[in-house]
Automatic annotation (TrEMBL):
Organism: Glossina austeni
Principal place of residence: cytoplasm
Gene Ontology terms describing biological process: actin filament organization; myofibril assembly; pointed-end actin filament capping
Subcellular locations according to the entry: Cytoplasm, Cytoskeleton
Name by which UniProt lists this protein: Tropomodulin
Family annotation (SMART domains): LRR_RI
Pfam families per UniProt: Tropomodulin (PF03250)
Keywords of this entry: Cytoplasm, Cytoskeleton
Length: 402
């Protein structure tokens, strides 16, 4: 090997590997301005005061870095052999996001590939290694009852605070003290519920006290509320009303047909609704008409509004859970003014969940003009509309009772 070339020492020492690389002397670099090891700045703040600031030189491994200010890094790297550059690359992290991860990582796998990845065999190998590898023994085995480290001891309370707590007493009078001293635990719980001390009892005790059902047995102050068994209600039977036969009875003005219930009947065509609403004004015995969840649309609801205006005996009309728009709901409420017999009208849960301020104000004005309406089933969002409608309906109820 040429005598001018330098090799890396293979001797083991505490010095990092990249610092053991010997380099050739660096030629003199021109056009470099040497920097002083420290800077001295004088600033005159007044006629008699001066401020001096000193900057300490930076150091690395105890050496002053100012000695390397005149060194050209590119010239140093040009002198290194490929093997030396690889050794240096292992010690220095490039921290460059534009480099691929395999070039940024200093780890190099020297093993030869064993073939394509087999995920199933890899998982089996990992599980086998985990089962065969013995657990690391504990440095200090667990001993029951042994306290390790510092045990927390609460600080002693101030004696004066304890004395103040002991002196606190409420004088309720002899009569109340005698009554409370002889009261049972159930009576104390009832008294706490009446006074509104919810945090002193559970839900079962509170509701039992308000409903005067008697306290549950075995609960007491420290009782735990158990889940209440749900009540199982039977499913509603399907509505087996014959639509065509009912429309025929309405047309014939059957005196026995007082209530007509089409609730939850699917697939009623618009033609059937048109036939029903066409003969409805001529009927003089039908009082209750329920059309909940039957798929009413604006087209059929407008026909219903025209039929309501001419009805003479209808008292209850229910069209909840359909596809009626807010403007058509207003027309239905407006039709109630001409039909003075309807006392209850329900039309909530329609296609539009929110009616809007303008629609609610129109409905409120129409309801206030209606003197026969006693109950209204509509969800009104604004407080003004709710209060005005509730007040007017209450006046109609009072007027009807008198």
């Amino acid at each position: 090997m040429d005598s001018n070339k330098r090799t890396v020492h293979s001797e083991k020492s505490d010095v990092p590997e990249f610092q053991r690389i010997k380099l050739r002397p660096v030629p003199e670099i021109k056009h470099k301005i040497p920097q002083p090891s420290f800077s001295l700045s004088l600033r005159k703040t007044s006629s008699t005061t001066k401020t001096t600031s000193l900057t300490a030189p930076a150091k690395l491994y105890g050496k002053d870095l100012s000695e390397y200010d005149e060194v050209d890094v590119d010239a140093l790297l040009a002198q290194l052999s490929p093997e030396e550059i690889n050794i240096l690359a292992k010690e220095v992290d490039p921290d460059d996001n534009f480099l691929p991860p395999d070039q940024r990582c200093s780890y190099e796998c020297t093993k030869s590939p064993t073939g394509p990845l087999d995920r199933k065999k890899l998982i089996e190998h990992i599980n086998k290694q985990a089962l065969e590898t013995p657990d690391q023994p504990e440095f200090e085995p667990y001993v029951k009852g042994t306290v390790r480290g510092k045990k927390w001891i609460p600080p002693a309370r101030d004696q004066r605070a304890l004395e103040v707590e002991e002196q606190i007493a409420i004088d309720m009078g002899d009569e109340y003290e005698q009554a409370l001293s002889h009261a049972t635990q159930e009576e104390i719980i009832d008294l706490a519920a009446i006074l509104g001390f919810h945090s002193m009892m559970n839900q079962d005790q509170y509701h039992a006290s308000l409903l005067n059902k008697g306290q549950p047995v075995g609960l007491g102050w420290d009782g735990i509320t158990k889940s209440t068994q749900q009540k199982v209600y039977p499913m509603d039977p399907p509505n087996n009303t014959d639509v065509e036969e009912s429309i025929k009875r309405v047309k014939e003005d059957d005196p026995k047909l007082i209530e007509l219930n089409f609730n939850n009947i699917k697939n009623i065509s618009d033609e059937k609704f048109e036939q029903l609403f066409e003969v409805l004004p001529k009927n003089e015995h039908l009082e209750v008409l329920s059309l909940t969840n039957v798929g009413l649309t604006d087209k059929t609801a407008l026909l219903l509004a025209e039929a309501i205006e001419k009805s003479k005996t209808l008292r209850v009309l229910n069209v909840e859970t359909n596809f009626i728009s807010p403007p058509v709901v207003v027309k239905l409420v407006k039709a109630l003014l001409k039909c003075r017999t309807i006392e209850e009208f329900r039309a909530s849960n329609q296609r539009s969940a929110v009616l809007g301020n303008k629609i609610e104000m129109e409905i409120t004005d129409l309801v206030e003009k209606n003197t026969s309406l006693l109950r209204l089933g509509l969800h009104l969002e604004f407080n003004d509309a709710r209060h005005r409608v509730a007040a007017h309906l209450q006046r109609n109820i009072d007027r009807n009772e008198n």
